[in-house]
Protein backbone atom coordinates (compact mmCIF):
# COMPACT_ATOMS: atom_id res chain seq x y z
CA UNK A 1 0.00 0.00 0.00
CA UNK A 2 1.48 3.30 -1.13
CA UNK A 3 1.09 6.49 0.84
CA UNK A 4 -0.01 9.46 -1.19
CA UNK A 5 2.67 12.21 -1.39
CA UNK A 6 0.01 14.80 -0.66
CA UNK A 7 -0.97 12.91 2.49
CA UNK A 8 2.69 12.76 3.56
CA UNK A 9 3.09 16.48 2.97
CA UNK A 10 -0.09 17.18 4.90
CA UNK A 11 1.13 15.11 7.87
CA UNK A 12 4.51 16.85 7.77
CA UNK A 13 2.82 20.26 7.71
CA UNK A 14 0.59 19.32 10.64
CA UNK A 15 3.58 18.08 12.64
CA UNK A 16 5.52 21.21 11.79
CA UNK A 17 2.61 23.39 12.94
CA UNK A 18 2.39 21.47 16.21
CA UNK A 19 6.14 21.73 16.84
CA UNK A 20 6.59 25.42 16.08
CA UNK A 21 3.34 26.83 17.43
CA UNK A 22 2.58 24.53 20.36
CA UNK A 23 5.39 22.27 21.52
CA UNK A 24 8.27 24.75 21.34
CA UNK A 25 6.21 27.66 22.66
CA UNK A 26 5.31 25.60 25.73
CA UNK A 27 8.94 24.58 26.08
CA UNK A 28 10.08 28.21 25.94
CA UNK A 29 7.70 29.21 28.75
CA UNK A 30 8.88 26.23 30.82
CA UNK A 31 12.53 27.15 30.20
CA UNK A 32 11.90 30.73 31.33
CA UNK A 33 9.82 29.91 34.41
CA UNK A 34 10.77 26.34 35.36
CA UNK A 35 13.45 27.30 37.86
CA UNK A 36 10.71 28.79 40.07
CA UNK A 37 8.61 25.62 40.31
CA UNK A 38 10.59 22.58 39.09
CA UNK A 39 11.91 20.83 42.24
CA UNK A 40 15.44 20.13 40.97
CA UNK A 41 17.96 21.27 38.39
CA UNK A 42 18.13 17.76 36.98
CA UNK A 43 14.40 17.71 36.21
CA UNK A 44 14.61 21.25 34.80
CA UNK A 45 17.29 20.06 32.36
CA UNK A 46 15.23 17.03 31.35
CA UNK A 47 12.22 19.25 30.68
CA UNK A 48 14.41 21.36 28.40
CA UNK A 49 15.47 18.26 26.47
CA UNK A 50 11.88 17.08 26.09
CA UNK A 51 10.15 20.40 25.38
CA UNK A 52 12.77 22.37 23.45
CA UNK A 53 15.88 20.46 22.38
CA UNK A 54 14.12 17.40 20.94
CA UNK A 55 11.31 19.24 19.11
CA UNK A 56 13.83 21.76 17.73
CA UNK A 57 15.94 18.89 16.37
CA UNK A 58 12.80 17.24 14.97
CA UNK A 59 11.73 20.52 13.37
CA UNK A 60 15.10 20.80 11.60
CA UNK A 61 14.91 17.17 10.43
CA UNK A 62 11.45 17.47 8.83
CA UNK A 63 12.40 20.79 7.18
CA UNK A 64 16.15 20.64 6.40
CA UNK A 65 16.08 23.99 4.60
CA UNK A 66 15.58 25.66 7.95
CA UNK A 67 18.98 24.44 9.13
CA UNK A 68 20.64 26.38 6.32
CA UNK A 69 18.54 29.41 7.27
CA UNK A 70 19.50 29.16 10.94
CA UNK A 71 23.25 28.78 10.41
CA UNK A 72 23.36 31.79 8.06
CA UNK A 73 22.41 34.13 10.89
CA UNK A 74 25.66 35.94 11.83
CA UNK A 75 25.18 35.62 15.62
CA UNK A 76 24.57 31.87 15.32
CA UNK A 77 27.45 31.52 12.87
CA UNK A 78 29.75 33.20 15.39
CA UNK A 79 28.50 30.79 18.07
CA UNK A 80 29.22 27.82 15.80
CA UNK A 81 32.77 29.11 15.28
CA UNK A 82 33.13 29.44 19.06
CA UNK A 83 31.76 25.91 19.55
CA UNK A 84 34.20 24.47 16.98
CA UNK A 85 37.12 26.14 18.76
CA UNK A 86 35.80 24.80 22.08
CA UNK A 87 35.69 21.26 20.66
CA UNK A 88 39.24 21.61 19.36
CA UNK A 89 40.31 22.74 22.84
CA UNK A 90 39.05 19.46 24.29
CA UNK A 91 42.25 17.85 22.97
CA UNK A 92 44.25 19.65 25.67
CA UNK A 93 41.65 20.26 28.39
CA UNK A 94 42.44 19.30 31.97
CA UNK A 95 38.84 18.63 32.93
CA UNK A 96 37.81 15.74 35.15
CA UNK A 97 34.56 15.37 33.17
CA UNK A 98 34.28 13.04 30.20
CA UNK A 99 35.02 14.62 26.83
CA UNK A 100 31.72 13.36 25.45
CA UNK A 101 29.82 15.10 28.23
CA UNK A 102 31.63 18.36 27.55
CA UNK A 103 31.21 18.06 23.79
CA UNK A 104 27.41 17.91 24.15
CA UNK A 105 27.19 21.33 25.83
CA UNK A 106 27.41 23.41 22.61
CA UNK A 107 24.63 21.30 21.09
CA UNK A 108 22.26 22.22 23.93
CA UNK A 109 22.84 25.91 23.24
CA UNK A 110 22.60 25.52 19.46
CA UNK A 111 19.22 23.83 19.86
CA UNK A 112 18.06 26.81 21.93
CA UNK A 113 19.03 29.08 19.03
CA UNK A 114 17.22 26.73 16.64
CA UNK A 115 14.10 26.48 18.81
CA UNK A 116 13.71 30.25 19.08
CA UNK A 117 14.38 30.63 15.36
CA UNK A 118 11.71 28.05 14.47
CA UNK A 119 9.12 29.82 16.62
CA UNK A 120 9.95 33.28 15.29
CA UNK A 121 10.12 31.91 11.75
CA UNK A 122 6.44 31.06 11.97
CA UNK A 123 5.44 34.20 13.84
CA UNK A 124 7.72 36.33 16.00
CA UNK A 125 4.65 37.34 18.01
CA UNK A 126 4.53 33.78 19.35
CA UNK A 127 8.06 34.11 20.72
CA UNK A 128 7.48 37.57 22.17
CA UNK A 129 4.10 36.47 23.55
CA UNK A 130 5.66 33.47 25.30
CA UNK A 131 8.30 35.78 26.79
CA UNK A 132 5.57 38.11 28.02
CA UNK A 133 3.61 35.25 29.65
CA UNK A 134 6.80 34.07 31.35
CA UNK A 135 7.49 37.60 32.59
CA UNK A 136 4.00 37.80 34.10
CA UNK A 137 4.51 34.45 35.83
CA UNK A 138 7.93 35.61 37.03
CA UNK A 139 6.35 38.64 38.71
CA UNK A 140 3.94 36.34 40.52
CA UNK A 141 6.80 33.97 41.42
CA UNK A 142 8.81 36.87 42.87
CA UNK A 143 5.89 37.80 45.10
CA UNK A 144 5.43 34.18 46.23
CA UNK A 145 9.16 33.85 46.95
CA UNK A 146 9.10 37.03 48.99
CA UNK A 147 6.14 35.86 51.08
CA UNK A 148 7.87 32.54 51.78
CA UNK A 149 11.09 34.33 52.66
CA UNK A 150 9.35 36.83 54.94
CA UNK A 151 7.63 34.00 56.81
CA UNK A 152 11.07 32.77 57.96
CA UNK A 153 13.78 35.09 59.27
CA UNK A 154 14.41 37.56 56.43
CA UNK A 155 16.92 39.81 58.21
CA UNK A 156 19.23 36.92 59.13
CA UNK A 157 19.60 35.37 55.68
CA UNK A 158 19.61 36.12 51.99
CA UNK A 159 16.74 34.79 49.90
CA UNK A 160 17.49 31.78 47.72
CA UNK A 161 14.06 31.07 46.27
CA UNK A 162 11.87 28.11 45.48
CA UNK A 163 12.11 25.26 42.99
CA UNK A 164 15.48 24.61 41.38
CA UNK A 165 17.01 27.94 42.41
CA UNK A 166 20.31 27.24 44.14
CA UNK A 167 21.81 30.32 45.73
CA UNK A 168 21.07 34.04 46.14
CA UNK A 169 23.49 35.27 43.48
CA UNK A 170 22.18 32.96 40.75
CA UNK A 171 18.60 33.65 41.81
CA UNK A 172 19.19 37.37 41.36
CA UNK A 173 20.25 36.78 37.73
CA UNK A 174 16.86 35.28 36.92
CA UNK A 175 14.84 37.96 38.68
CA UNK A 176 17.03 40.63 37.09
CA UNK A 177 16.35 39.26 33.61
CA UNK A 178 12.60 39.62 34.06
CA UNK A 179 12.89 42.99 35.77
CA UNK A 180 14.86 44.18 32.73
CA UNK A 181 12.02 42.97 30.51
CA UNK A 182 9.41 44.99 32.41
CA UNK A 183 11.72 47.97 32.70
CA UNK A 184 12.32 48.02 28.93
CA UNK A 185 8.60 47.50 28.22
CA UNK A 186 7.76 50.53 30.34
CA UNK A 187 10.51 52.68 28.84
CA UNK A 188 9.45 51.80 25.31
CA UNK A 189 5.79 52.51 26.05
CA UNK A 190 5.08 49.06 24.67
CA UNK A 191 2.12 48.39 26.96
CA UNK A 192 -1.52 49.31 26.60
CA UNK A 193 -1.82 48.92 30.37
CA UNK A 194 0.90 51.34 31.54
CA UNK A 195 0.39 50.17 35.13
CA UNK A 196 1.34 46.56 34.36
CA UNK A 197 5.18 46.89 34.18
CA UNK A 198 5.42 48.75 37.53
CA UNK A 199 2.96 46.34 39.13
CA UNK A 200 4.96 43.26 38.11
CA UNK A 201 8.33 44.97 38.37
CA UNK A 202 8.03 45.98 42.03
CA UNK A 203 8.00 42.41 43.42
CA UNK A 204 10.99 41.64 41.19
CA UNK A 205 12.88 44.64 42.62
CA UNK A 206 12.03 43.50 46.15
CA UNK A 207 13.09 39.93 45.35
CA UNK A 208 16.46 41.10 44.03
CA UNK A 209 17.01 43.18 47.14
CA UNK A 210 16.09 40.18 49.31
CA UNK A 211 18.83 38.10 47.66
CA UNK A 212 21.35 40.65 48.89
CA UNK A 213 23.15 40.55 45.55
CA UNK A 214 24.60 43.82 44.33
CA UNK A 215 25.47 42.63 40.82
CA UNK A 216 21.92 42.95 39.36
CA UNK A 217 21.60 46.51 40.64
CA UNK A 218 24.85 47.47 38.93
CA UNK A 219 23.74 45.67 35.74
CA UNK A 220 20.31 47.35 35.84
CA UNK A 221 21.94 50.75 36.34
CA UNK A 222 24.14 50.23 33.27
CA UNK A 223 21.13 48.95 31.34
CA UNK A 224 19.25 52.15 32.15
CA UNK A 225 22.24 54.11 30.86
CA UNK A 226 22.03 52.11 27.63
CA UNK A 227 18.30 52.76 27.42
CA UNK A 228 18.95 56.50 27.62
CA UNK A 229 20.33 56.04 24.12
CA UNK A 230 17.60 53.65 22.96
CA UNK A 231 14.53 55.13 24.64
CA UNK A 232 15.40 58.67 25.71
CA UNK A 233 15.40 60.56 29.01
CA UNK A 234 12.59 58.46 30.45
CA UNK A 235 15.29 56.00 31.56
CA UNK A 236 16.34 58.52 34.22
CA UNK A 237 13.29 57.59 36.32
CA UNK A 238 14.22 53.92 36.91
CA UNK A 239 17.82 55.02 37.50
CA UNK A 240 16.57 57.13 40.40
CA UNK A 241 14.41 54.26 41.72
CA UNK A 242 17.32 51.79 41.65
CA UNK A 243 19.57 54.24 43.48
CA UNK A 244 16.90 54.88 46.11
CA UNK A 245 16.21 51.15 46.58
CA UNK A 246 19.90 50.32 46.97
CA UNK A 247 20.38 53.16 49.43
CA UNK A 248 17.37 52.10 51.49
CA UNK A 249 18.51 48.51 51.80
CA UNK A 250 22.06 49.59 52.59
CA UNK A 251 20.62 51.53 55.50
CA UNK A 252 18.45 48.62 56.67
CA UNK A 253 21.01 45.83 56.16
CA UNK A 254 24.48 47.40 56.07
CA UNK A 255 26.16 44.12 56.96
CA UNK A 256 24.99 42.64 53.66
CA UNK A 257 25.67 45.61 51.42
CA UNK A 258 28.65 47.44 52.88
CA UNK A 259 30.77 45.04 54.93
CA UNK A 260 31.48 42.78 51.97
CA UNK A 261 33.28 45.60 50.14
CA UNK A 262 34.41 44.45 46.69
CA UNK A 263 34.24 40.76 47.74
CA UNK A 264 37.89 40.48 46.68
CA UNK A 265 36.91 40.67 43.01
CA UNK A 266 39.95 42.76 41.96
CA UNK A 267 42.38 40.32 43.62
CA UNK A 268 40.55 37.35 42.14
CA UNK A 269 40.56 38.85 38.63
CA UNK A 270 44.25 39.68 38.89
CA UNK A 271 45.01 36.06 39.81
CA UNK A 272 42.80 34.84 36.94
CA UNK A 273 44.66 37.06 34.47
CA UNK A 274 47.96 35.69 35.74
CA UNK A 275 46.79 32.12 35.13
CA UNK A 276 45.37 33.05 31.72
CA UNK A 277 48.72 34.51 30.64
CA UNK A 278 50.32 31.06 31.01
CA UNK A 279 48.34 29.81 28.01
CA UNK A 280 47.14 33.08 26.53
CA UNK A 281 46.18 32.23 22.95
CA UNK A 282 44.87 28.66 23.26
CA UNK A 283 43.55 28.60 26.83
CA UNK A 284 43.58 25.67 29.23
CA UNK A 285 40.72 23.91 27.47
CA UNK A 286 36.98 23.92 28.12
CA UNK A 287 36.00 22.51 31.50
CA UNK A 288 39.48 22.82 33.00
CA UNK A 289 39.71 23.27 36.77
CA UNK A 290 41.44 26.29 38.31
CA UNK A 291 42.65 27.27 41.74
CA UNK A 292 42.86 30.97 42.59
CA UNK A 293 44.96 31.81 45.63
CA UNK A 294 43.84 34.97 47.38
CA UNK A 295 45.74 35.53 50.61
CA UNK A 296 43.01 37.74 52.10
CA UNK A 297 40.50 34.88 52.05
CA UNK A 298 42.67 32.26 53.63
CA UNK A 299 41.30 29.65 51.24
CA UNK A 300 41.24 28.99 47.49
CA UNK A 301 38.53 29.56 44.90
CA UNK A 302 37.91 27.84 41.57
CA UNK A 303 35.61 30.45 39.98
CA UNK A 304 36.94 33.72 38.48
CA UNK A 305 33.50 35.35 38.93
CA UNK A 306 33.61 36.89 35.48
CA UNK A 307 32.21 35.34 32.31
CA UNK A 308 34.76 36.88 29.96
CA UNK A 309 37.66 35.87 32.21
CA UNK A 310 36.30 32.32 32.29
CA UNK A 311 36.22 32.30 28.48
CA UNK A 312 39.78 33.64 28.36
CA UNK A 313 41.01 31.03 30.84
CA UNK A 314 39.40 28.06 29.12
CA UNK A 315 39.35 29.08 25.44
CA UNK A 316 42.21 31.55 25.32
CA UNK A 317 42.41 34.82 23.46
CA UNK A 318 41.12 33.14 20.29
CA UNK A 319 37.99 32.01 22.12
CA UNK A 320 37.50 35.42 23.73
CA UNK A 321 37.72 37.12 20.31
CA UNK A 322 35.02 34.77 18.97
CA UNK A 323 32.94 35.41 22.11
CA UNK A 324 33.15 39.18 21.69
CA UNK A 325 32.42 38.82 17.96
CA UNK A 326 29.19 37.01 18.81
CA UNK A 327 28.14 39.84 21.12
CA UNK A 328 29.33 42.48 18.66
CA UNK A 329 27.17 41.03 15.89
CA UNK A 330 24.16 40.93 18.22
CA UNK A 331 24.63 44.58 19.18
CA UNK A 332 25.17 45.57 15.56
CA UNK A 333 21.88 43.97 14.57
CA UNK A 334 20.05 45.71 17.41
CA UNK A 335 21.52 49.04 16.38
CA UNK A 336 20.64 48.47 12.72
CA UNK A 337 17.01 47.86 13.73
CA UNK A 338 16.86 50.16 16.77
CA UNK A 339 13.69 51.80 15.42
CA UNK A 340 11.82 48.53 16.06
CA UNK A 341 10.65 47.98 19.63
CA UNK A 342 11.47 44.27 19.80
CA UNK A 343 15.14 45.00 19.11
CA UNK A 344 15.20 47.80 21.66
CA UNK A 345 13.82 45.29 24.17
CA UNK A 346 16.24 42.51 23.36
CA UNK A 347 19.18 44.93 23.39
CA UNK A 348 18.29 45.78 27.01
CA UNK A 349 18.32 42.07 27.91
CA UNK A 350 21.72 41.63 26.26
CA UNK A 351 23.20 44.64 28.07
CA UNK A 352 21.83 43.42 31.39
CA UNK A 353 23.26 39.95 30.89
CA UNK A 354 26.62 41.21 29.71
CA UNK A 355 26.94 43.55 32.71
CA UNK A 356 25.73 40.92 35.20
CA UNK A 357 28.34 38.53 33.87
CA UNK A 358 31.17 40.94 34.66
CA UNK A 359 31.20 39.92 38.33
CA UNK A 360 29.27 36.64 38.36
CA UNK A 361 28.26 33.70 36.23
CA UNK A 362 31.49 32.07 35.05
CA UNK A 363 29.66 28.93 33.92
CA UNK A 364 29.37 30.33 30.42
CA UNK A 365 28.50 27.11 28.57
CA UNK A 366 26.53 24.59 30.57
CA UNK A 367 23.31 22.69 30.65
CA UNK A 368 20.26 24.93 31.20
CA UNK A 369 20.61 26.85 34.46
CA UNK A 370 20.45 30.38 35.86
CA UNK A 371 23.42 31.55 33.81
CA UNK A 372 21.47 31.01 30.59
CA UNK A 373 19.38 34.05 31.56
CA UNK A 374 22.38 36.36 31.29
CA UNK A 375 24.01 34.80 28.22
CA UNK A 376 22.17 32.44 25.90
CA UNK A 377 18.50 33.35 26.30
CA UNK A 378 19.04 37.03 25.32
CA UNK A 379 21.34 36.06 22.43
CA UNK A 380 18.93 33.40 21.14
CA UNK A 381 16.04 35.87 21.28
CA UNK A 382 18.03 38.44 19.31
CA UNK A 383 19.12 35.91 16.68
CA UNK A 384 15.57 34.60 16.26
CA UNK A 385 14.08 38.08 15.82
CA UNK A 386 16.86 38.92 13.36
CA UNK A 387 16.06 35.83 11.31
CA UNK A 388 12.36 36.72 11.31
CA UNK A 389 13.23 40.20 10.08
CA UNK A 390 15.33 38.79 7.24
CA UNK A 391 12.48 36.46 6.27
CA UNK A 392 10.07 39.40 6.07
CA UNK A 393 12.43 41.22 3.72
CA UNK A 394 12.79 38.14 1.47
CA UNK A 395 9.02 37.55 1.23
CA UNK A 396 8.20 41.15 0.31
From TrEMBL:
Its main location: membrane. This is O-antigen ligase. One of its GO terms (cellular component) is membrane. It comes from Pseudomonas fluvialis. The chain crosses the membrane at residues 20-38, 47-63, 75-93, 105-121, 127-148, 169-188, 200-229, 236-253, 309-331, 343-359, 371-388. It is found in: Membrane. Pfam families: Wzy_C. GO terms for molecular function: ligase activity. Residues 203-324 form the O-antigen ligase-related domain. Keywords: Ligase, Membrane, Transmembrane, Transmembrane helix. It is a multi-pass membrane protein. InterPro entries: O-antigen_ligase-rel_domated, WaaL-like.
